[in-house]
Amino acid sequence: MTFTQQTKGTDTMTALAQAQCEACRADAPKVSDEELAELIREIPDWNIEVRGDHMELERVFLFRTFRHALAFTNAVGAIAEEVGHHPALLTEWGKVTVTWWSHEMRGLHRNDFIMAARTDQLAASAEGRK
Ligand SMILES: C[C@H](O)[C@H](O)[C@H]1CNC2=NC(N)=NC(=O)C2=N1
């Protein structure tokens, strides 16, 4: 899995968000422990959850209303569809839990970190954040 960072901007999260996702393959390499330590620093508000035999990236976003939560849910869904890499999305009143991991390879790929960074960028401009 190559991973091309379009820019080496000062804000590494922005650079991560602008990186290109690659098509997920079952035999794609999981991120190494070193990559994990480096990449999680670029998305500091995300938690690494160990679930069964794999890790997942997860963050809760709070909103004033269900309508705002639903709008954000749909915005995340749209960027997922654009790249063909999809999160788990739990939408509740005033709250959206976003979880990224790579199903076919049962683990964390750089794509998951890219999409978490893009999710943060969406949240930065989302209406009704608490
Ligand atoms: C056929 C389709 O492209 C694949 O099933 C994609 C869809 N979206 C995906 N999303 C995630 N998170 N992991 C995958 O392995 C995955 N595979």
UniProtKB/TrEMBL annotation:
Q: Which Gene3D superfamilies match?
A: Transcriptional coactivator/pterin dehydratase
Give the UniProt family note.
Answer: Belongs to the pterin-4-alpha-carbinolamine dehydratase family.
Pfam families assigned: Pterin_4a (PF01329)
Write down the species: Stutzerimonas balearica DSM 6083
* Listed EC numbers: 4.2.1.96
- Annotated catalysed reactions: (4aS,6R)-4a-hydroxy-L-erythro-5,6,7,8-tetrahydrobiopterin = (6R)-L-erythro-6,7-dihydrobiopterin + H2O
- List keywords of the entry alphabetically: Lyase
The record's section on InterPro entries has:
PCD_sf, Pterin-4-alpha-carb_dehyd, Pterin_deHydtase
Q: What is this protein called?
A: Putative pterin-4-alpha-carbinolamine dehydratase
Q: Which CDD domains match?
A: PCD_DCoH_subfamily_a
